[in-house]
Amino acid sequence: MFFIREKRYLTPTVFAMEIEAPLVIKHAEPGHFVMIRVDEEGERIPLTIADISPEHQTLTLIVQVVGATTYQLSQKNIGDTISDCLGPCGKATELDHLKRVILIGGGVGCAILHPIAKKLAKMKTEVLTIIGFRDQSLVILEDDFYRLSNKLITMTDDGSYGTKGFVTEALKNVLNEDADFDRIIAIGPIPMMKAVSELSKPYGIKTIVSMNPIMVDGTGMCGGCRIQVGDDIKFACVDGPDFDGHLVDFDQLMKRNKAYKTYENQYYERLIKKEGERHD
After folding, report:
1. Residue 103, beta-bridge partner list
2. Domains of the chain, residue spans
3. Which residue in 8, 35, 59, 92 is a FRET match for 16, CA 20 to 30 A apart?
4. DSSP-assigned states of every residue in the chain
5. Torsion of CA 105, 109, 110, 114, to 10 degrees
6. What percent of the chain has pLDDT over 90?
7. 2-89 has which CATH code?
8. Order of strands across the sheet with 14-20?
């Protein structure tokens, strides 16, 4: 069992949860994720480690409620436990020898980007960060990125906060003025990562994206998280989650991620209905 030490909401549907997991954080690095189960009958889902606290022996997960398991996790509170927290899984993000980096986060993808920004700041790397959200109510971690970045650009689709537009618009403006960057790291919705990769390719800047496809075990055994990267088949859980965005087949990935959408929605609706009846 893994104890929940802290919980706070960042938006109405996004919460941060600190879980006591001393053996996991012992080897955790930016880019690593954990496989969690809320209870012994639940499914396993991957969640990226957003932060760690050696002092409190905890890791932080930032979670958006999008389905049954994330909803069940959201119902847990301080002092409760979850059944499993396996990790750290995957490969750490490669950050050595980088001098100038552009970080791009979309929505909850900013949570995955946060530990990367922390490490780059510690390394004294020059960091320009672009974060984007649908509207002001969904903005998260802005103060953290402001503190960790040399420059921060905040975008909202509707212009309710920051600059109106998509992160790709901000990136295009940056690269038109200065394209001398060692790396672009983009994390967020698949269409956003695809658009960023297509935009950066003509500039010849290596662009890393973080893949979070369907996973069952997180150890490379099931093959559910396979993606096409160039001429190769890769497994996001053991070969990633970071890949070269210029080589990822995003269209195939989007189709695979929709494979169980109907079932997932039906299960989520049944769960919500059941919870409502239980509280009537």
Report:
1. 129, 185
2. 2-89, 100-210
3. 92
4. -EEEEEEEEEETTEEEEEEE-HHHHTT--TT-EEEEESSTTSPPEEEEEEEEETTTTEEEEEEE--SHHHHHHHT--TT-EESEEEEEES-----TT--EEEEEEETTHHHHHHHHHHHHHHTT-EEEEEEEESSGGG--SHHHHHHH-SEEEEEETTSSSSEES-HHHHHHHHHHH----SEEEEES-HHHHHHHHHHHGGGT--EEEE-----SSSSSSS-TTEEEETTEEEEHHHH-SEEETTTB-HHHHHHHHTTTHHHHHHHHHHHHHHHHHHH-
5. -110
6. 82
7. 2.40.30.10
8. 81-82, 2-11, 14-20, 58-64, 45-53, 33-37, 84-89
pLDDT tens digit sequence for 179-189: 999 999 999 99
The token duo for 21 is 């997991």
Residue range 30-58, pLDDT digits in tens:
999 999 999 998 889 999 999 999 999 99
The correct answer on CATH 1.10.3720.10 for the domain covering 100-210 is: no
Write out the two tokens for 217: 């075990």
Residue 84 near residue 35, CB atoms below 8 Å? yes
For the chain, what's the residue count?
Answer: 280
